[in-house]
């Protein structure tokens, strides 16, 4: 089992990283994909501590849409920063999380678009998968992905929160999607339908730690060990065994991100 998206190189885990890793391994995790912000030097440095504590982890590096405003005057600088961080991290396997966020609009939308585009181009140049963040911006996200030729590489819609119609749109475009702890929330009816709908070979599971802890830990700091609860809930929704979900999502992870 693999946590396909978490942020354990953040300061939230600096004080008990070894214990977090031990609990993850105890829950049956083989590894995790750690998301790093190319514009956060402290996080990039902490990645080395994470890799020492958990050698099996891999990394995805990008400029989040919230930070796109830093590069508004020169969007190419975002790609340069990501490219340098990828080159410095031998365990890097993807570009992301990148995309658009119209819910918070922390960065101007034109800057979000430009920074998104240059990072897609970088991923295509490096032949790396793309990890997508999209919130209240699905139409523009799909349009930019298509315009920039993102179908040339694997694309994962992380922490998917849409309905089956949007999930079908993801799948028809040739992309994959990942479910986080939200799927365990009682009121997440549409997302539960998605969990039962998506083919197993197109599905990933994640925690998005330290955010979105699943039931019964909702409201507390999330951590990779809790992806086991996501697997169990998805299994119950699909009428599968948890072992089947763990095996299938691990195979999907390796197909997308490699060893």
In a few lines, what is going on in this structure?
The protein has nine helices and eight strands. The chain is of the alpha/beta class. The protein has an eight-stranded parallel beta sheet.
What does this structure look like?
This protein is α/β, with parallel strands linked by helices. It has a single domain (2-257), classed as Alpha-Beta Barrel (TIM Barrel). 42% of the residues lie in helices and 17% in strands. The chain has helices spanning 17-26, 41-53, 76-88, 109-126, 138-147, 164-172, 189-197, 227-238, 242-257, and strands at residues 2-6, 31-37, 58-62, 92-101, 130-135, 155-157, 176-179, 203-205. The radius of gyration is 17 Å and the shape is globular. The model has no long low-confidence stretch (mean pLDDT 98).
Quaternary state reads single chain
Question: Biggest sheet, in brief?
Answer: 8 strands, parallel
Q: Give the low-pLDDT segments.
A: none
CATH first level: Alpha Beta
| CATH architectural group | Alpha-Beta Barrel
Compute the number of strand runs. Answer: 8
Determine the CATH topology.
TIM Barrel
What's the domain count?
1
Q: Which structural class do the helices and strands define? A: alpha/beta
Mean pLDDT: 98
């Amino acid at each position: 089992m693999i946590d396909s998206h978490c942020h354990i190189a953040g300061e939230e885990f600096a004080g008990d990283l070894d214990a977090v890793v031990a609990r993850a391994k105890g829950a049956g995790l083989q590894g995790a994909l750690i998301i790093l912000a190319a514009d956060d030097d402290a996080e990039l440095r902490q990645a080395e501590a994470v890799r020492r504590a958990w050698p099996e982890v891999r990394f995805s590096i990008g400029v989040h849409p919230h930070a796109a405003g830093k590069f508004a005057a020169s969007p190419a600088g975002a790609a340069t920063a990501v490219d340098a961080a990828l080159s410095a991290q031998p365990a890097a396997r993807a570009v992301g999380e990148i995309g658009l966020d119209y819910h918070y609009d922390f960065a101007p939308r034109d800057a979000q678009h430009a920074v998104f585009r240059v990072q897609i181009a970088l991923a295509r140049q490096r032949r790396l998968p793309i990890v997508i963040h999209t919130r209240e911006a699905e139409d523009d996200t799909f349009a930019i992905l298509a315009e920039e030729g993102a179908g040339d590489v694997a694309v994962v819609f992380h922490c998917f929160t849409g309905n089956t119609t949007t999930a079908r749109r993801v799948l028809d475009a040739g992309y994959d999607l990942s479910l986080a702890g939200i799927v365990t929330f009682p009121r997440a009816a549409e997302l539960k339908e998605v969990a039962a709908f998506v083919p197993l070979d197109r599905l990933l599971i994640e925690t998005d730690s330290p955010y979105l802890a699943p039931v019964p830990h909702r409201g507390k700091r999330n951590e990779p060990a809790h992806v086991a609860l996501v697997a169990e809930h998805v299994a119950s929704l699909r009428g599968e065994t948890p072992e089947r979900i763990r095996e299938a999502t691990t195979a999907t992870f390796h197909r997308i991100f490699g060893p």
